[in-house]
Fold this protein.
Amino acid sequence: MSLSALLILFGVLLIFFSTWYGLSYLFSPHMDEPDGYARVTGNCGDTMEIGIKVKKGKVVETQCATDGCTMSKQCVESAARLALEKSIEEIRSLNMTHIADEVGHVPDSHLHCAQLAEITLQRALDDYSRNQQPLNQG
C-alpha cells in the first residue's frame, strides 16, 4: 500500500470518527444547571457522568452520559432511571446490585460498570448535598 493511500485512509477515518464524536456529543442530553453533578472515571478508563435536579426532596430529572462500552451505558442509564422520583434518602440506599438487577444480566467481567454507576450517582448526591449547605445554614 502506498503512502498516499495510507494518508487518504487516515483522513477518511479521522473524518468519520470526528463526525461520530461530534454527533454523539450534540445528541447527548445535557442538563442546564443541575442541582447535583458528578463525573467519575473508573479503573477501566470509562467515564460516567450523572446530573440530577431535585424538587421538594425528590429527583425530578436526570441526565447521564458515558464514553464507555455498551454495558457502561446501560448501567449509568439504569442508575439515572432508578433515581427518578425517589427521595435523596431512598437513592442513598441504591447500590450496584440494584443497578445490575435493573440492567438485567451483567456479566461478571462487567460488574465494575454497575459499581462505577453507583459511585457516580452517589457523588452526584454528595454534590447536591454540598450545594444545599449554604441554604440550610442561612
